[in-house]
Amino acid sequence: MTDSLSTLPNRRALHAFAKNHPGKQDEMAVAIIDLDGFKTVNDHYGHAIGDQLIKECAIILRDLCNEEANAFRLGGDEFAICMIGPLAGTIVEGIARSFIDRFRRPIEIEGRRIMIGASAGIASSKGADRITSGEAMRRSDVAMYASKRNGKMRSTWYKQSLDANRESMRELDMEMRAALANDAFNLVYQPLVNAKSGEIVAVETLLRWDSREAGPVGPHIFVPVAEESGLISEIGIWVLRGACRDALEWDDIKLSVNISAVQLRDVEFPILLGQILEETGFPAERLELEITETCLVNDPVLAARSLELIRGFGVNVSLDDFGTGYASIGFLRQFRFEKLKLDRSLVVDAEGDEGSRAMMLSSITMAQALKMDVTAEGVETEEQAALVRSAGCDQIQGWLYYKALPASEIADKLNDASDLLPKQAVNG
């Protein structure tokens, strides 16, 4: 009952270990660990490197377990830890955390420095409440997916509420699939204005969903569910196609569309992008794809390759939510974005804090040195607008000027002479 690739005991061995262990009253703890980004490694480097990575992970896990706990490979990129005895839960949690921490630095395989992550879920029981190994693994699996939803690179203990959440997510996923099939999603557009003239120079595409069951559902709720289920790629293509169709008649202004990390990792995405541009006739030079830093950090090599293909069409790429993550000067030089979008939090903090203001100013100076345009997001007050304008931002986006508008209203706003009033909110 050994896995041939990793030489670790397999799933059947875990069940046998739990069933045959003499300490029936002792605590049993199980952790399930899933690698984050393993499919990308296979797609980018090939299965031979993927197999080597699995072997390396098995060695790391076996060494961490030592003689205290038992390591298993369940299949694919999924591993497990099982221990029966005093303090089993505490020990298994410590091993899982150590395994995850190991992936905060790259693993070297055949001269390649590979960055991946890991997420874990843990469940335990003891005494009269001791559950079967099958149920322990099911609970650990539920908790592991909670770790992935909450940002990955972490471990989560199972609790009953996770089962209820999982069922809710399943129902939400089914609703989203029906909404996508029936064109029940809606697109709205928030204008960006020239910081000096107040003229509309671009619009950002925003996705809205009014569920028949739950009413309006925010993207912060349904997008993570769609990313986990894999539906986000289909939704993203629907958004991109619909936005290009809507914006075709809005002469000269840029159209920005957000893409997720899942889409950027999809080797088919650049192909689909090209097909949409050809199908809709939308000028590539007017399209701008917005990505966040999380799209890039797990596999910067694959991200760079995807961005190169995207730019090959003439499409621009902007870095969204700058100021909330890990981006550095080297990071920005590596990817050469056409635009930097300052996150609202950076703008708000700069209003009342000298250190935050200095950080915002240095970010703008850095972007300008790298020949990037700079947009300030979430501007809601005259004071914020004056601050980012004097700091050198090229564009301003926020409720001070425009809320998100349906496509039918954008053309009217483009022709509205009041666009030229840079210090007056124009919310229609």
TrEMBL record:
Gene3D superfamilies (alphabetical): 3.30.70.270, EAL domain
Listed InterPro entries: Biofilm_reg_signaling, EAL_dom, EAL_sf, GGDEF_dom, Nucleotide_cyclase, Rev_trsase/Diguanyl_cyclase
PROSITE patterns: EAL, GGDEF
Domain spans labelled GGDEF: 26-160
Domain EAL per the UniProt entry, residue ranges: 169-418
Source domain of life: Bacteria
One Pfam family recorded for the sequence: EAL
SUPFAM superfamilies: EAL domain-like, Nucleotide cyclase
PANTHER family recorded: BIOFILM ARCHITECTURE MAINTENANCE PROTEIN MBAA (PTHR44757:SF2), DIGUANYLATE CYCLASE DGCP (PTHR44757)
Family matches, as NCBIfam families: GGDEF (TIGR00254)
Protein name per UniProt: Bifunctional diguanylate cyclase/phosphodiesterase
Organism: Aurantiacibacter sediminis
Lineage summary: Bacteria, Pseudomonadati, Pseudomonadota, Alphaproteobacteria, Sphingomonadales
